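Protein 1 of 2
SEQ + STRUCT:
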Amino acid sequence: MDRYQTGMLAWSRAGHDNGRLYVIAAVEEEYVFLTDGRLRPLEKPKKKKKKHVQVIRTIPRELENMSENTIKNEDVRRVIRRFLNVENGCN
């Protein structure tokens, strides 16, 4: 598995959005494109250097079965919300 893959969750570790959770929408050589489905929708992802993000090396089940063309902003928001709820101990 590559270190950075589309669909993985990633924490921002630098910049004004430090500590925000995103989904990787696309990967280039030195950059990843991040989306949260709300402030940064799929149509306008945030471009960030790879060294400024910390990836969570699993792809959520909801996203791994979808192609890049079928993922919607609602799916991204749902995945992030579920991950944060589980991390905070809420089910």
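Protein 2 of 2
SEQ + STRUCT:
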Amino acid sequence: MIFIEMSRYLTCYTVNTPLENLVAEFESIVKSCDFEIVYQSSECIVAREIPGKVPFSKLVTIELTIDNTNIYQDQVHVDLIAKSDELTLHLDNHCRRSFDKLAKTIANSGNWHLQEDFTS
């Protein structure tokens, strides 16, 4: 049996914003990183990289999972996953670069506070 490792990076954040503002803020962040929202529910937002700049297998998908059960004084806990079908043959791959760009944009937003980083 052969297991192929695809690119996947995960971090956890606490966002200091009311839940109803989270979607608009996240949409603004991903748009500035060349992503578009393709799915949205009360528990999850999915964005994908806009096609055209990289091969299809390297296109990155972002999943933001929202913890609706643990909201306290406008602090929302979220998990952010970046993934693609790209093989992780190198530490510096397209998915990692896209994830780092997104993480830097999030850090500059001021409302998002890193809780755990599983990307090492």
